[in-house]
Write a structure and sequence with these properties.
With about 120 residues, this protein is mostly helical. It has five helices and no strands. Helix 1 runs parallel beside helix 3 and helix 3 packs across helix 4. It starts with a helix and ends in a 6-residue tail after the last helix.
């Protein structure tokens, strides 16, 4: 799992750096849509595998989500990310993983096809 989180961090950091270069030309809504498409989709991919992950690796993923929120609102790296995540209606990574796992379980029990 360490290799997967390392590769994921590397990929997302690369995308965040590139997005930061063009951020001044984007409005907040457009940047939010790009981040949801490029960053959050990668964080959500294979969420069930992250269930029970070490806190060290979970913190690395949380840092990536915090960087994304700061990028959307053009906040400095030292600003608190919790209010930003709340205003975007994003769950923290640990709760996001738990929510996705429970949602898949609910859909399996109620004979709905998982997404």
């Amino acid at each position: 799992m360490a290799d997967h989180t390392t590769n994921l961090s590397r990929t997302i950091n690369w995308q965040l750096r590139n997005l930061n270069r063009i951020r001044k030309y984007l409005d907040t809504d457009t940047c939010h849509n790009i981040v949801r498409t490029l960053i959050l989709s990668k964080l959500d991919y294979c969420n069930l595998l992250f269930n029970g992950i070490d806190k060290k690796h979970l913190n690395r993923l949380q840092v990536l989500q915090n960087k994304s929120a700061r990028l959307i609102f053009r906040q400095p790296s030292r600003s608190h990310a919790s209010p930003l995540l709340q205003s975007l209606h994003w769950l923290p990574v640990a709760q996001r993983i738990q929510f996705k796992s429970l949602l898949q379980t609910f859909k399996a029990f109620h004979t709905q096809s998982p997404d």
